[in-house]
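Exercise 7b. Backbone tokens:
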């Protein structure tokens, strides 16, 4: 984060708080990571701010990566995940009960499904 350059110190401070909250809840949604409405609203405000862009957010990461590369004398191995997923199917029967919600069972004990 030290290499991030925001046009306003308050944005840098908010980014630090947001990063701390999100890093403690990796994989969670923003509301779950922020844990209350005030922090969630502040996070969304930060991310929608016209003065905040990918350049500012990723700038520190790019600078730190460049610094580490500069210290390397030998070959550099860069790994990249090229996995691809396709969720296309010829029909919904291939996936089972897609689009149906189970709402319990009927009198005979069979599951009830609703679209």
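Sequence design result:
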């Amino acid at each position: 984060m030290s290499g991030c350059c925001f046009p306003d110190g308050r944005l840098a401070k908010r980014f630090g708080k947001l990063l701390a909250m999100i890093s403690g809840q990796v994989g969670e949604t923003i509301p779950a990571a922020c844990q209350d409405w005030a922090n969630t609203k502040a996070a969304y405000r930060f991310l929608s701010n016209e003065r905040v862009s990918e350049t500012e957010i990723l700038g520190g990461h790019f600078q730190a990566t460049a610094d580490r590369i500069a210290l390397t004398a030998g070959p550099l191995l860069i790994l990249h995940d090229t996995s691809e997923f396709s969720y296309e199917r010829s029909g919904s029967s291939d996936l089972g009960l897609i689009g149906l919600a189970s709402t319990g069972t009927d009198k005979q004990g069979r599951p009830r499904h609703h679209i």
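Instructor comment: Residues 1-115 form one domain. Helices lie at 9-23, 30-34, 37-48, 54-70.
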